[in-house]
Design goal:
five-stranded mixed β-sheet, alpha+beta, 9 helices, elongated, about 350 residues
């Protein structure tokens, strides 16, 4: 393999620090070309400093330390006028066990990716803490009150408190389920169990559930355009996709929420439309990120629903987009491929 094919930056130097190799990714990350760097000492062209301003190469000291050292752990370093980088090193010894260092192989990564992950994790912890606090406080409060003063309440009052406890327990369960889905999507462990699925029938079921829960029947409309091909999908995940998109239309939109199912060239397209404000053009790129809650306003929910929808659609080999609906409002349109899976 050519070192220029590696996704991370790579620099190799001899035991004295003279640079032998610089790959293309390292050129991009450091701003130093290989023609400038090769043959020169690393401190002259790549003067890495740690967060306290200390010389990293001097700290690394390839010729010193124990002869059992094989690597230096990744740490944040910076170059003058450049963004922070994540740098690690491996010592190549001859002989391999206990011999002197003959080369130092340095890997370089962009630290901004890690910073985004850390911010995402901090947001996740904050969101989970916020979303759990309210229902758990309610569950604890009503349960403690009922246990301490059961005889003082009427049956009607007990029923109201128990219904509240039940609803808040459901809220906690939904949050945990969403967090598990996010974890599976991010780690690539999402499994799709395919079977023949009637997409209009699943949409009809989701709408019937909303109506049974108290939504007016005329709030929803289902349209099926043309003869649909056979689709092999994960029925539970299709239900989850449709339920999340319909919920999004009800919560963030206004007027009628329409579900349109139609055949396209290589599969089935499903559009979920509302008659609300729609999504501002400058926010389209954020819609499927974690914690997006609609035009920057907090309207309930965890902000994980559309992120999960995108992950579930892509796990089926499909695509999803958001645009302005024909009658105004937002239109979330996803396309799922047709055809039977290969069981061989």
């Amino acid at each position: 393999m050519c070192v220029d094919e590696l996704p991370d930056g790579l620099v190799a130097a001899d035991h004295e620090g003279r640079i032998l190799v610089v790959n293309r990714a390292a050129e991009r990350l450091t701003g130093v070309g290989r023609q400038t760097a090769v043959g020169r000492h690393i401190t002259d062209v790549l003067p890495f400093r740690d967060l306290e301003g200390r010389d990293w190469w001097k700290w690394l000291d390839p010729r010193g330390g124990l002869r059992t050292r094989s690597r230096a752990p990744e740490r944040p370093l910076s170059l003058p006028g450049r963004q922070e980088l994540l740098v690690a090193a491996r010592f190549v010894r001859t002989p391999e066990r206990g011999g002197p260092v003959v080369r130092v192989v340095i890997t370089i990564r962009d630290a901004s990716a890690r910073a985004r992950v850390e911010r995402s994790r901090a947001d996740l912890v904050s969101t989970v803490a916020h979303e759990l606090r309210s229902p758990l406080t309610s569950v604890k409060g009503f349960t403690a009150t009922l246990l301490a003063k059961w005889e003082r309440f009427t049956d009607a009052q007990k029923l109201v408190m128990l219904e509240t406890v039940n609803a808040d327990a459901d809220r906690v369960t939904r949050l945990i389920t969403e967090l598990l889905d996010v974890s599976r999507i991010e780690s690539g462990r999402l499994q799709v169990r395919r079977q023949v699925v009637d997409v209009p029938a699943r949409a009809r079921r989701i709408i019937a559930g909303r109506v049974a829960a108290g939504e007016p029947e005329d709030r929803f409309r289902l349209e099926v355009g043309g003869e649909l091909p056979e689709t092999w999908l994960d029925q539970d995940k299709i239900d989850q996709i449709l339920a999340n998109l319909v919920e999004n239309g009800v919560r963030h939109g206004r007027g009628t929420v329409s579900v349109v199912v139609e055949p396209v060239e290589w599969g089935v397209a499903v559009s979920v439309r509302d008659q609300g404000e729609g999504v501002a053009p400058e926010l389209v790129g954020r819609v499927f990120r974690q914690f997006w809650r609609g035009n920057g306003r907090r309207r309930g929910g965890t902000g994980l629903g559309l992120f999960i929808v995108k992950g579930l659609v892509e796990a089926h080999g499909g695509t999803i987009s958001v645009q302005r609906a024909p009658g105004g409002g937002a239109e979330f349109r996803f396309i799922l491929p047709t055809g039977a899976p290969d069981f061989a």
